[in-house]
Amino acid sequence: MDSYCVLYSSAHRTGLLAGFQRLRTEHKMCDVVLQAGGLDFPCHRALLASSSEYFWALFGETTTERLADSVSLPALTPEGLDAILDFLYSGWLSISKQTLPVVLEAARYLQVDKAVAICERYIIDSLCADNCCGYADLAERHALQDALEAANHTIAMEMKVLLQENREDLLGLNIQSLMDVFEADEIPGVKEVELIKLALDWLDENGPLPLLKSNLLLSRLRFGLVASSDLANFSHKAMSTPLIRSQLTRALEYHASAIEKPIKQSKQTTLRSSPNRVLLVGGGSNPDWPEQQMMMFDPRTRKFTCLQSELPVRLKHHCVCSIGGFLFVIGGEEVKDWLQDGKNSVTILTSNKMWRYDPRFDQWEEMDSMMERRSQFTCCVVEDIIYAIGGRQHHQQASTCLASVEYFDMTMRSWRKGPPLPNPIFGHATTVLDDKIYVSGGVQGNQASILVNNSSYSPDHHRETSKDVLCWDVTTKNWEKKASMTIARFGHQMATANGYIYALLGMYEPFCDIEKYDSNSNSWTRLRPLLNGSFNYGMVVMPSGNLFVFGGRKWNDGQEVIVKTVLEYDTKKDHWREVSQLPKGIAGVECTLLPIPD
């Protein structure tokens, strides 16, 4: 058999279409005329039938149009038909914001799927506050699911602008899009009460609707995010149905639950905000004078925002945690300044207070105090119960190291004693893995008086720090010793990510090594060192398992400097990188993930 090859020419295909377009332009060899809006469009049956399912069926063997000289298309506009014919003859589709509706109508009617896909891509790529409502209606009318989802997302993200400048567009929006928007978990800068007013105005504009539809719309609103006093002001008849009244009742019961609010969370009480924003609490550019300002870090944009709300007191060596979208600030050293004999004086008092911050209403509330005053302690959360572990108390020029453990269960509404540590400890680190609490390093025993001024470095301090690791099972309530770290650490951080525990740089360590603990093998492994040898930094674990490290202090030519860098550690790739810069150097900050409204 003789060998042969097959070669393809794209130029021939392009030339073929160009030839048909030239024939159409010159009205040569055309065997059918399409009519729309009083205009004639001479065409070629063969090309139309090969490019469109509609024309394939129209010019079939059994149709009356098979041999007709002209075909009327009254459902189409001349502009829309002309654009689709140009696409069939050339492969190019001309679209603008003004012509898109008629072009898409023609593409749908004539079943030119490739042109429909181009129109959908055009909608998605050009979405903005000015057109998102109109494009959502267009996408919904033509069942363009990807474009509809993109338009609805844009409406949610641009809602603040739309309410101020394009409210009429919102009132004309199709009900499916409005329901999808009210389902969104992120609607930046908009209070829930504004969404309720929008929904009621929309019902007035587009009603009356069947109760089922109005219920479906209103039930997507989050009444738990609206103050009790505001809920009482809504008297619209659509709010009086049994379903909506029951949701209003649950919202009022939630507001009345006080202490238990964080553990009574539902979608109705969840902020429409990214849950993965990092809240930086306390700390400052002067380690001895902490700031009350709080900052938010958005990992997506790598930008910082200062919150309007501030800490009720100045704190250092405190702990923070979050439950149910609430921030808890616990213990630490409360720093106060006051006038004495005309001079400014500063007092530092170890605190046992616990403050709770609700970002929904920007409210601080002082909760039940711990049984012990604690500084340089740790806290963690297991099954919505807060545990406070170890630490120390200052007494004038001396301090006492603590072995006590206490926990706060919101269902019991008070702090209670837990099994104490085997030894008093402070400056340690804590994390949770598989509902077990791990405690590592620190200074054990009553050596606290040696380290009252912990801002200075001494080789003796390094010898006093510990490598020990303890584990407490909250079910058996027993402390168990685990494999020791390879490095003695004090003032360090621990984190749990992807099933492993990571121990990061502490205060008196000559190197920047970090290490990973495997609970299955009960062993530690050294990893890539930290980029900078800082301490007294803030750290948080992201849902992805990556760690963010914020600021801190480090030694530079014998001088202590405050760090501005934000580092990210990829735990899967064992890779460090600098991702941002703090607005200013900060040390002593505590971090947690918390949804914060824009």
Overview of the structural elements:
The protein is 26% helix and 29% strand. By secondary structure, the chain is an alpha+beta fold. Among the domains are: 191-256, no CATH class; 278-560 and 581-593, Neuraminidase. A four-stranded antiparallel sheet has the order 6-5-4-36, with no helix packed on it. Strands 8-9-12-13 form a four-stranded antiparallel sheet, with no helix packed on it. The longest helix is centred in the N-terminal third of the chain and has 16 residues, at 10-25. It is elongated.
Q: In brief, what are we looking at here?
A:
The chain contains 16 helices and 36 strands.
- By CATH, the architecture of one domain is named 6 Propeller
Give the strand order of the largest sheet, numbering strands 1, 2, ... along the chain: 6-5-4-36
Oligomeric composition of the shown chains: single chain
CATH homologous superfamily heading of one domain = Kelch-type beta propeller
Helix content: 25-40%
* Unreliable stretches: 447-463
Number of strands: 36
Outline the fold blueprint.
Elements: H1 10-25, E1 32-36, E2 39-43, H2 45-51, H3 53-58, E3 70-72, H4 78-90, H5 100-109, H6 113-125, H7 132-141, H8 145-157, H9 159-165, H10 167-171, H11 175-182, H12 192-206, H13 211-218, H14 228-231, H15 242-255, E4 278-281, E5 293-298, E6 303-310, E7 315-316, E8 319-323, E9 326-330, E10 333-340, E11 343-350, E12 354-358, E13 363-366, E14 378-382, E15 385-389, E16 392-395, E17 398-401, E18 405-409, E19 414-418, E20 425-426, E21 429-433, E22 436-440, E23 443-444, H16 459-464, E24 469-473, E25 478-482, E26 493-497, E27 500-504, E28 515-518, E29 523-526, E30 538-541, E31 547-550, E32 553-556, E33 559-562, E34 565-570, E35 575-581, E36 590-593
Parallel strand pairs: 1-3
Antiparallel strand pairs: 1-2, 4-5, 4-36, 5-6, 7-10, 8-9, 9-12, 10-11, 12-13, 14-15, 15-18, 16-17, 18-19, 20-23, 21-22, 22-24, 24-25, 26-27, 27-28, 28-29, 30-31, 31-34, 32-33, 34-35
